[in-house]
Amino acid sequence: MTAMTRRGFVKGAALTPLAFSPLALGQPAPTSTSEKFDIVIAGAGHNSLITAAYLAKAGYRCLVLEGRPIVGGGVKTAELTLKGFRHDTCSSAHQFLFDNPMLRDKELNLEAYGLEYIFPDPVFHMPFADGTSITQWRDPERTITEFAKFSKKDATSYRKMMEEYESVKPILEAVTYTPIGFGKPLNDRLADHPKGKIWQRRLAMSHWEIVRANFEDDHCRSFMLCAPWGNMPPENPVTGRSAYSTFNQQRTSRPLPKGGSGKLSAKQPGALIQNFVDEVTRSKFRIAKPRLLSRLLVDELERIRQTGSPYSPQTDLSKVVQGTAEKIIREANA
Ligand SMILES: Cc1cc2nc3c(=O)[nH]c(=O)nc-3n(C[C@H](O)[C@H](O)[C@H](O)COP(=O)(O)OP(=O)(O)OC[C@H]3O[C@@H](n4cnc5c(N)ncnc54)[C@H](O)[C@@H]3O)c2cc1C
């Protein structure tokens, strides 16, 4: 397979829906003035919204349907306690998203829609039952001093691991943000790294094996196991990469959208939603309440079946989606 760039993939992926479109089925393509859509997207969590925004940018008319009254899925901010006090309902720190080309390379230009990040300093504070604590600061030297309170060896390990990780991070990121089959696999990329074999071994190890081998003090070990968060069984093989995740936030802090996590997605005023709606006055967003989209899709499938036409996954899927979208639009416009 020839290597494909991420941009090329995004372009290619944007064309995939054509396989299900009336165009591919030999039917007339939707006109830009009608209430017809190329793509219907189920759910308005941030992953759906990002997908919709890229598709809209590529010129597709998308309809995003959300079953809940507020968009954003796990990326929402709401008054959960007292009036005037807004809390993130689930996600809070957009640390991994921050390394994603969408934000890193400003592919969706969300800053222009008011998305602004703050980078807390201190980054992370871990208090212990014995009254001591470790604080991670944006300044690595200050963090290293925190480790040195407990062990000189652990402070040295922190510095060494951080420096080593910097050299391999571009490779790990390139693999993370390249769909499988669209670029060189991890081991091929590591083969070009001077310590590729060592990194292959580290990634195959468990989070705990790496922490135990490098840190002697329990406070330092706890920090390295739980910052940014406790990962699923750290003793499981192939969780070694998690031992280095604390260095992501050492570098970029824990980026928080100003005004709360929901600023990324929320309708009023969320950068993704605004980008999507703006990019295309041609694209639409609807809250499909009170019924969930899946119910509507099933109803529409049933209606088509009752017409007696033989079932074909490709044509019926296309009809079901288009039929459901039309039904919702009719109701919304009524
Ligand atoms: C407590 C908690 C804390 C977290 N903290 C962080 C953090 O700090 N940083 C971080 O990066 N991640 C964090 N996460 C993870 C993050 O929230 C999720 O990875 C992210 O929300 C997933 O987004 P998504 O778009 O894939 O799905 P979701 O956010 O789950 O969105 C799915 C959407 O689809 C809608 N939907 C589902 N079915 C239908 C249907 N049939 N019809 C219509 N609508 C439908 C749902 O209502 C929902 O709005 C946290 C998660 C939790 C639970």
Structure commentary:
By secondary structure, the protein is mainly alpha-helical. The protein has 2 domains: 183 residues, Rossmann fold (3-Layer(aba) Sandwich), CATH 3.40.50; 134 residues, no CATH class. Strands 1-2-9 form a 3-stranded parallel β-sheet, sandwiched between helices. Helix 5 crosses helix 6. The longest helix is centred in the middle third of the chain and has 25 residues. Flavin-adenine dinucleotide (FAD) binds next to helix 2, strand 2, helix 3 and helix 13. The site of flavin-adenine dinucleotide has 25 residues, from helix 2, strand 2, helix 3 and helix 13.
Q: Compute the separation of the termini in Å.
A: 50 Å
CATH architecture of the largest domain: 3-Layer(aba) Sandwich
Write down the domain tally: 2
Strand content: 5-15%
The order of strands across the largest sheet is: 1-2-9
User: What's the pLDDT, averaged over the residues?
Assistant: 80
Discrete helix count: 14
Stretches where pLDDT falls below 50 for ≥5 residues?
Answer: 6-33
Class per helix and strand makeup? mainly alpha
Name the helix and strand elements from N-terminus to C-terminus, one letter apiece.
HEHEEEHHEEEHHHHHHHEHEHH
Spatial shape: elongated
- Under CATH, the topology of the largest domain can be stated as Rossmann fold
> What is the percent of helical residues?
40-55%
Ligands bound, unique: flavin-adenine dinucleotide
CA radius of gyration is 24 Å
Main β-sheet description:
3 strands, parallel
- CATH class membership of the largest domain: Alpha Beta
How many strands? 9
